[in-house]
Amino acid sequence: xxxxxxxxxxxxxxxxxxxxxxxxxxxxxxxxxxxxxxxxxxxxxxxxxxxxxxxxxxxxxxxxxxxxxxxxxxxxxxxxxxxxxxxxxxxxxxxxxxxxxxxxxxxxxxxxxxxxxxxxxxxxxxxxxxxxxxxxxxxxxxxxxxxxxxxxxxxxxxxxxxxxxxxxxxxxxxxxxxxxxxxxxxxxxxxxxxxxxxxxxxxxxxxxxxxxxxxxxxxxxxxxxxxxxxxxxxxxxxxxxxxxxxxxxxxxxxxxxxxxxxxxxxxxxxxxxxxxxxxxxxxxxxxxxxxxxxxxxxxxxxxxxxxxxxxxxxxxxxxxxxxxxxxxxxxxxxxxxxxxxxxxxxxxxxxxxxxxxxxxxxxxxxxxxxxxxxxxxxxxxxxxxxxxxxxxxxxxxxxxxxxxxxxxxxxxxxxxxxxxxxxxxxxxxxxxxxxxxxxxxxxxxxxxxxxxxxxxxxxx
Length: 460
What we know:
The chain is an all-alpha fold. It has helices at 9-13, 22-33, 36-48, 52-80, 84-92, 99-131, 139-150, 153-172, 175-202, 207-215, 224-238, 244-250, 259-287, 302-307, 313-347, 351-371, 386-414, 416-423, 436-455.
């Protein structure tokens, strides 16, 4: 492997995999963006930040900040024709900006380490609902049941391992026969499920009170913390800095891919999915007199309590958790592909060897995080439990600092004009114009910098 170019032996001996079609790239990258960040994280942040006011700011920031940063990361991947670790070494040599790759790898690994446990929780609820072992009850009963389940790490890992094996099997099929084929099936199912659940939710008596609360902005509720929360969620949901966009961009043909149009489509789909997730949850919560500000337990506690009030609660729970499982699986596949592809590029390993080595490492990393809800519950790092610490480091440090580094690299090293020329190769009607200049040079770095400082606790 040549450190000077960033190419591995595997890269030199075999041609790089390519997407089968532009639609395959868009669907697979949409699957990366649309996941538990939309279904689990977005609704509870809306509930904690006043409904419509948060939604309005989130949409504005997703369009203003999300599209330029996502476009830049895909374009970097296509330009490097390699994954972030090898790709940034190839582009910048020994420059400090090569840390973009390491920050992305760290974020992807830590996120996937705890993400797999959430997928295990979802799989458990899904299987219980379909087999009759699910017992929907009050919100209090749901909270106690969830706490009891997560405190048994052996049971959690028993559900987590098959999910990881399923993901690994899909990844071993390769880019076109694995991720692209899965995305073509799962993404339409995901959006159809969102629409169908939303229609059901709107049919409850009193549901439109929830719609009005969700969509009507209360500007008196907007404060600095609302802007920070919305920008951080846009960052988390779209997936900037997680390596996925960089890796997927590296599989694009150098001059035959429409990056600006694809990025805008993907961010739009991600935003629509988040909005639809709110239309599934909040009308039903208001119809049954439940409070929307339930925090991170909204998905597993409040929604489970909601099913206890429905005539066919077990059936509703089965469909709901199936839909959530699909959403989580599509994002998990992208993160797993990013990590496995990085091992392929950097170490020269085969796809199969890289994939199963990464899966083994992730499962080992997940053990202490699972124990953190049970026997190791008293173990704290910086006042946080092990699971919360992994979430904090990946989201508030690696992810945001990596995104800031990408924006600074585009503004100060790559240069806007070179970025514009590179990104517009193969572009369609939507192109990077001169109007993007101030946004890329000033707005994006400043906005992301604020998120970094807030995440590190340096803003009061």
